Amino acid sequence: MDALVETRSLRVALVGVPNCGKTALFNRLTGSRQKVANYPGVTVERREGERIGDDGRVLRVLDLPGTYSLHPTTLDEAITRDVLLGRLAGVPAPELVVCVVDAVHLPIGLRLALEVKRLGLPMVLALNRMDVARRRGVGIRVEQLAAALGVPVVPTVAVRRGGADALIGILDPARWPQGAPVAAVGAQIGAAEAERLQHDMRALLAASGYSPPRDNPWFARIDALLLQPFAGLLALLAILFVMFQAVFSWAQAPMDWIEAGMAALGDLVATHMPPGPVADLLVQGVIGGAGTVLVFLPQIVILFFFILALEDSGYLPRAAYLLDRLMGFVGLSGRAFIPLLSSHACAIPGIMATRTIPNWRDRLTTIMIAPLMTCSARLPVYLLLIGALIPAHKVGPFNLQGLVMFILYAIGILSGVLVSFVVKQFGGARQYSPLMLELPDYQWPNAANLLLGLWERVKIFLSRVGGIILALMIVLWILSTWPAPPEGATGPAIQYSLAGRLGAMLEHVFAPLGFNWQISIALVPGLAAREVAVGALGTVYAMSAAGDDLAAQLQPVIAGSWSLATGLSLMAWYIFAPQCLSTLAVVKRETNSWRYPLIMAGYLFALAYLAAFITFRVASAWG
Amino acid sequence: MAVVTSLRESASLDAGRHSDESLVARLRDLGFVPGARCEVVARMWLGGDPIAVRIAGSTFALRRAEAAAVQVQMAPAQAAGRESLTQPGTSAAAA
């Protein structure tokens, strides 16, 4: 039985140049049956998925990082080569390679396909985006191409339902022999070998009656605007501005629903359980704690929606082009733009995206400033403080609250610029690293791929809420209720608990910044994950106040008991403080040393303390 | 429009700053091979750095230092002569 199952499964690897629609094809093949992990020892994203056919056939599909050649210049590209060669420990070589080629840009894809074919692995060529290619007048005779190349060639339209059926049909485990030998690849491609590849590629194009696509006149028109220095930068600013405005205005309604839902759930539990510590833990610790963080899900979804849509549309590399020179002034590559933009959603995917920066120095600088970008975990804190302390006045056409939020983002970016400038000045000579970035054809973002990408982010966020955040909230709740206050105590119960005592100690450290003991307590669990601080404040205040109404009441409590200076100081602290253990852990993994996460934590804490101190003093002096 | 004539292995990249072979090899991978037609479609401020080059239906952003490795000849309709992709006189015509 086992043997039968064994022969009915096939390990398939997808290979292709960047922007060939490989990931869309992967999604089409595997649907939602995919998991994202890392390759052993490195943090290159390993996308794997499974497809189980109606007849019991199992395809295990691996989506390899995009590459132009098997002679790598980045870590991602090296992984692709090593997996194909079966050199990567823990990852068996594929039994079949599906080389994905964008039919609209056939030559560049065919060149890679020829290189892959020389490895000797069984191969199928997927001619993707066939619909667009036909529309733009590309001539390809598929059978002739297959005959000339000597492998099956299958047209696909990855973004269309059923667009990969022909490919799926050919991926039959019975058809492909196993254990084919793999040829070696040299580290550098010689000029002679490169010429031979070019020659073979041209012969293939001629044999398949290839005629190139008509240029889409719209692309040139759009590029004339978006790549024009002044108009292009203006458009980029406008796009970013709309994106951040949307995060705040569109999310309001769903946030209200979540808030109301969690409050109703809390009430339900409170009325149906006998009062006591267990009910308190459930209502205050679990529902209250998770709810205060869960409420920010809509904003995170909107932010990722924009980032994924911009990525899918082909715009992001153009932003990198526009910013390359400006970023060069402070010692960054334009390639750093995409990781830094992702860091506005979360520093972790941002830091992982720095792998596409070939130069180690550039990459390290980008990693070091990634946590300065305002990630979505800071949003709960900023939104709480702004909502409580900043009036919703109109300032010209803008809302003062939105403006303050914009300033917080801007400070994050500016300090990133300053830090990398300092690194450039004092970091010694750097090696030149090329830009060489493809500006792909524009396309409408594909709804199904967008939804799948969003769902992945939502899952990550929810598992954070359900895992680390919830655990911390429960621990904090226990610490702040135990031990119980002594007989005849006058102050709020929490002051006698462990958390209260810890807060009292920390208050000495944070008093110069204007933080009270409640904030000081909340900062402790906030070290593990920033957004927990909001839930922690909710817990602390709920237990120090007389009434037990939670979460929803936090804003008025803060508005009533904090000075503006304290609120601004806490915002300043949050711009810089490295309060996310997962980020530091990723830096450790990416740099493979403790040195850089320690440097990062040290310099960010120093900046945070300094910034909060100055903010508090200045704001206090102004009243 | 210009036609690529050759790739300079010893391009004007500052000496020792980058392995020229790997740079030239990557340019070749992207389609910058003798005989390919290319066109500068956009250039940024500050001396036109980086530039956007259209070649074989694809567009690539290249810095001047990278583009300097690509030797081109202007298409017959325009000025003749062997030039580098980034030299002011010819690149303006190419754009």
Give a short overview.
The complex is a heterodimer of chains A (623) and B (95). With 623 residues, chain A is α/β, with parallel strands linked by helices.
Describe the 3D structure.
Chain A contains 27 helices and 10 strands. In chain A, α11 packs antiparallel against α12 (277-294), α12 packs antiparallel against α23 and α18 (379-389) runs antiparallel to α25 (564-576). Chain A has helices spanning 2-7, 22-30, 75-84, 106-117, 130-135, 142-149, 165-170, 191-207, 217-226, 229-249, 252-272, 277-294, 297-313, 316-329, 337-343, 347-353, 360-369, 379-389, 400-426, 447-481, 498-510, 517-526, 532-544, 554-561, 564-576, 581-591, 595-622; strands spanning 9-16, 34-38, 45-52, 58-63, 96-102, 123-128, 153-155, 394-395, 398-399, 437-439. Chain A has a 7-stranded mixed beta sheet with strand order 2-3-4-1-5-6-7, with helices on both faces. With 623 residues, chain A is an alpha/beta fold. In chain A, a hairpin with a 6-residue loop joins β2 (34-38) and β3. Chain B has 95 residues and is α+β, with helices and mostly antiparallel strands. In chain B, strands 4-3-2-1-5-6 form a 6-stranded antiparallel beta sheet. Chain B is globular, with a radius of gyration of 12 Å. Chain B starts with a strand and ends with a helix. Residues 11-18 and 88-95 of chain B have low confidence and may be disordered. The A-B interface holds A 68-69, 71, 73, 104-105, 107-108, 111-112, 188-189, 194, 198, 212-213, 215, 220, 223-224, 227-229, 317, 320-322, 324-325, 334, 431-440 and B 13-14, 17-18, 21-23, 25-31, 33, 41-42, 44-46, 49-50, 52, 56-63, 65-66.
Mind describing the biggest β-sheet of chain B? 6 strands, antiparallel
**Unreliable spans of chain B:** 11-18, 88-95
Based on secondary structure, the structural category of chain A is: alpha/beta
**Count of alpha/pi helices of chain A:** 27
Q: How many individual β-strands of chain B? A: 6
